[in-house]
Amino acid sequence: MNISFKSLVSVLVFVIGISASTSYESIEFLKAKNLTADYCYARSYAEVSFVVQNCTHIVLANFEVPARETLELKLRKNSVVLIEGTIKFAVAHWDGPLMHITGENIQVIGGTNHLIHGQGELYWDGQGGAGGVTKPQRVFSVKAEGGTFKNINIKNCPMFCVSIMGNDLTFSGFNIDNNDGFKNGRGKNTDGMGFSHSNNIVIENSKIVNQDDCVNVICSSNAVIRNVHCWGSHGLTISSGLSKTDRNNDVYNITYEDCSIGGSLVGIHVKTHPAGGHGTVNQVTYRNIEIKDVTKFGVEIQQDYPKGDGNSANNINIYNMNLINVTGSVKGSKAIGVRVSCGSGSCSDWNWSDVKITGSHKKDSCNFHPNGYKC
C-alpha cells in the first residue's frame, strides 16, 4: 500500500475546538493540506478501506473505482477528507451509489484540479430511469450528522448527482457539469442536488447544469438554498406526497434566495403527489429569484403532479408560500408565466410581491390567487 503518514495522533492538530456538538473550524483545501504532512493517502481504490478505518485526515488521490463497487467512506468522527486529481467510476449497469459518505462532524474538501467523474456519457440513452440500460442512481451520496462539503466538482452523472440525508450540513461551492447530457437529448433524470428527511441544511454558492430538478427538497425542515445558479434543469423544487405514510410528507421552513435558473423546463416548481399520504408544505420562501428563457412555466405550484391535468388533490396543505422579487422570462408559444393548481381548500396564506414573468403568449392559469399577485 502507498500510504503516507507519520503519526495518527499528530493529525489531530487539524481540528480546533471540537466538542460533542458540531463545533469545528471550517478550513479550505490548501490551508488544510499545509498544516501538516501527516495525511493518510489513498492512491488506489484498494487502499481506501484501510485508510478510512485508521485515519481521520485523508487524501483521495487520482484513481478509478472498479465497476459495481461503491467508494464507501464510513468516516470516523471529526474526519477531514481532501480530494485530488480525478476519481472515476468504471461502467456497470447497476443501481449504485457510486460514492457514499457517512460520518459525524466531517469535512470533505475538493482540491483545485480535482474531478468526480460519473461517466454518464457511457450510460445515457434518452430514457433515464424510465427504461433503457440500468444506471447508477446516485453519484455523491451523503448521510451524515454535522459537516461541511466544499468546492466539489462533479461531471456527467448517469442519473441523480448529489443525494443528501442528515442534519446540520453545509454544501458550498459545488460545480455540477452535465452539459454533455444535452447532446441529442440523451441525459435524463440527472437531478442536481436533493435532500430528504433532513434538518438544518445549507446549499450555497454553486453552479448546476443538468436535465432534471436543479435542487429538490423532500420531507425536510429548516434549510436555505442561496446563490445557486442553474441551467437546463426542471426547477428550484419542493416535493411532497412521495410517501404513502403521513409523517414523511412534511416540508417546513425552506428558503431559496439569490438564485437564478435558465434554459429550463420550469423555474420555481412546487409539486405535490395526489397518490401520497397527507402532509403540509409550510413556510416556504423564494426571494430574489431570476428566471430566464423557461420553456414551460416560470412558476408552477401544482397539486396534480405528474399529470398536470387540473385534477388536483388536497392531501397536502400548502401554507405560507411566499414569493418576493421573482422576475424573468419564459420562451416559446406554449410557455406560461404562472400556473397554480390547488386542491379544494388546500392552499392558504400565500403572499407574493414583485413577481413579474414576461414573454408568455398565454394568460396565467390559476385556481388559487396569492395575496399581492393578480393571476
Automatic annotation (TrEMBL):
Reactions accelerated catalytically: (1,4-alpha-D-galacturonosyl)n+m + H2O = (1,4-alpha-D-galacturonosyl)n + (1,4-alpha-D-galacturonosyl)m
MF (Gene Ontology): polygalacturonase activity
Predominant place of localization: secreted
Pfam families referenced in this protein's UniProt entry, alphabetically: Glyco_hydro_28
Keyword field: Cell wall biogenesis/degradation, Disulfide bond, Glycoprotein, Glycosidase, Hydrolase, Repeat, Secreted, Signal
Family: Belongs to the glycosyl hydrolase 28 family.
Listed PANTHER family: ENDOPOLYGALACTURONASE D-RELATED, POLYGALACTURONASE
Protein's recorded name: endo-polygalacturonase
Organism: Phaedon cochleariae (Mustard beetle)
Gene field: gh28-6
